[in-house]
Amino acid sequence: MGISSGLGANLSLEEAELVLLKAIELGCTFWDTAVVYQAGVNEKLLEDFIRKHNVRDRVFNTPLEESIPALDEIRKQGKTKYIGLSKCSANTLRKANSTEYSAFKKLHESDVLIATAREHGIAYVAYSPPGYGWLVDDFPHKSPDDFAPDDFRRTVPKFQGDNLYKNKAIVEEIKRLAVRKGCTLT
């Protein structure tokens, strides 16, 4: 959840708070975040928000070996439906829960990740299904220079140099296919 950084324009803390309040109003209960979002600013924002609005009393940082058995007990009691793991090791869950999955990165279909998650009844939660903005109806960037100076995509090879133009051509073909099928990219 890069509400504090990532794709160009950063939200102010006040703007982000409004987004989070609306998310709660709409019933959103699954928020994925990481230190990578503006060097921890995103997590600090969520921490402050949770405290201010008393959404959750405490944030735990418990070793996996302790938390998974406890969470599984809660799941067995019917108090929650799922347990989520993000970017865990292969032995923990073969990275089943937080890996990029989009038209640009589908290697997990040939990998054991999705099969392992299915085998264990674990939801596969992909990040960046819209391919870091590529697969939206109106991708505004015509050249690598169009990205804001602080947009992390400036450092991602698929958005640099000739790669941007090659990938843009792929996206245009995907858009044509979507039109033929009567759907949008989003």
From TrEMBL:
Pfam families: Aldo_ket_red (PF00248)
Domain of life of the source: Eukaryota
A single cellular component GO annotation: cytoplasm
InterPro entries recorded: Aldo-Keto_reductase, NAD(P)_OxRdtase_dom_sf, NADP_OxRdtase_dom
Keyword terms of this UniProt record: Oxidoreductase
Keyword Heme included in the entry's annotation: no
Every NADP-dependent oxidoreductase domain range: 60-185
Single GO molecular function: oxidoreductase activity
PANTHER family: AFLATOXIN B1 ALDEHYDE REDUCTASE, REDUCTASE (YAKC), PUTATIVE (AFU_ORTHOLOGUE AFUA_8G01560)-RELATED
Protein name stated in the entry: Related to pyridoxine 4-dehydrogenase
Gene source species: Fusarium torulosum
